[in-house]
């Protein structure tokens, strides 16, 4: 770890131009040290920014300086992967807390499949905690979306961490689309329309929360976010779209709003140069910044034999936390 940090310190002396290289960061400040991009499998995407490999060794031994390097790479690249980890759920929660304010969602939002004794962990898996198969419909997040859009600003500035403990033989990639790149390349007409619009997010319209109890849903009133936004940490320009389930405010009609949202989502997700698709290996710890990217889970053969076992945790960016420390228990703020 010491050698890696020394190399990282040396890399900080590079000029901005040298650090940028040929990679287009679309308004993000370049990282303090250069990272290789993770490109594996036939389904890759064409982004030159998303999906950097960050080598900090065993995250169980990470110190404060190492956590700062992880966060800086995440800010610059939007998505990073730390390879070869062997984490218990408690160790993942500890690592999550090193990066930001740990988030705990209501139990009914977690697919009614809580991880025993670890409320900050969501089981993203096709098998229940008791080992039985959830069935062919036991999948999550199979549409383009951001996490956390139902939180009021600035509490929506959320990082997601997904750790792979078991994988099917093939398939099951996670796709990402770059909201910095999408904003930077909008046509003048789309930019002008988006500038006067906001998305309105409701937990009641989020597919993964369909089994939420009325008591838990009521904790989160509807919120609005401008479609044109800036990044909390470096001020870079972003689109903020949520998902196809959002209502759009600011257009003459609801239908006009749906058309605009559809066009913006298509621009972001269907431009190859804006996308990255992560092909998983055991021990991958994938971290993404939800204000910078949309993500999408892709299919695999979920036949009751193949096991896809992932564990998700989330943290709020520290600059977004209004003077609190420790974990964030769910509820309206």
From TrEMBL:
The UniProt entry, under InterPro entries, shows: TauD-like_sf, TauD/TfdA-like, TfdA_dioxygenase
Q: Which UniProt keywords apply?
A: Dioxygenase, Iron, Metal-binding, Oxidoreductase
Entry-linked Pfam families? TauD
Q: Start and end of every TauD/TfdA-like domain?
A: 50-313
Keyword Cytoplasm on this protein? no
Q: Which GO terms describe its molecular function?
A: dioxygenase activity; metal ion binding
Family stated for the protein in its record = Belongs to the TfdA dioxygenase family.
What name does this protein carry?
TauD/TfdA-like domain-containing protein
Supply the source organism for this entry: Emiliania huxleyi (strain CCMP1516)
């Amino acid at each position: 770890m010491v050698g890696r940090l020394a190399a990282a310190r040396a890399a900080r002396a590079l000029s901005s131009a040298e650090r940028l290289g040929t990679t287009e960061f679309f308004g993000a400040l370049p990282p303090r040290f250069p990272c290789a991009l993770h490109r594996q499998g036939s389904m890759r995407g064409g982004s030159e920014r998303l999906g950097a490999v960050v080598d900090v060794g065993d995250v169980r031994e990470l110190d404060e300086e190492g956590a700062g390097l992880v966060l800086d790479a995440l800010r610059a690249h939007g998505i990073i992967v730390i390879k070869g980890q062997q984490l218990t759920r408690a160790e993942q929660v500890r690592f999550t807390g090193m990066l930001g304010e740990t988030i705990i969602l209501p139990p009914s939002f977690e697919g009614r499949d809580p991880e025993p004794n670890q409320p900050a962990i969501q089981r993203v898996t096709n098998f229940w905690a008791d080992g039985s198969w959830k069935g062919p419909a036991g999948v999550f997040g199979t549409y383009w979306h951001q996490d956390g859009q139902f939180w009021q600003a600035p509490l929506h500035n959320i990082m997601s961490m997904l750790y792979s403990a078991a994988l099917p033989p093939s398939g099951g990639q996670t796709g990402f689309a770059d909201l910095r790149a999408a904003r930077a390349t909008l046509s003048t007409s789309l930019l002008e329309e988006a500038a006067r619009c906001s998305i309105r997010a409701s937990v009641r319209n989020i597919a993964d929360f369909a089994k939420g109890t009325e008591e838990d849903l009521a904790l989160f009133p509807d919120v609005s976010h401008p479609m044109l936004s800036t990044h909390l940490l470096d001020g870079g320009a972003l689109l903020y779209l949520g998902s196809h389930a959002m209502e759009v405010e600011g257009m003459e009609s609801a239908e006009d709003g749906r058309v605009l949202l559809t066009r913006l989502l298509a621009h972001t997700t269907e431009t190859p140069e804006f996308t990255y698709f992560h092909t998983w290996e055991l021990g991958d710890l994938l971290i993404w910044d939800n204000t910078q990217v949309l993500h999408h889970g892709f299919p695999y053969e979920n036949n009751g034999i193949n096991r896809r076992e992932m564990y998700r945790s989330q943290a709020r960016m520290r600059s977004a936390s209004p003077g609190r420390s420790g974990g964030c228990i769910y509820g309206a703020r």
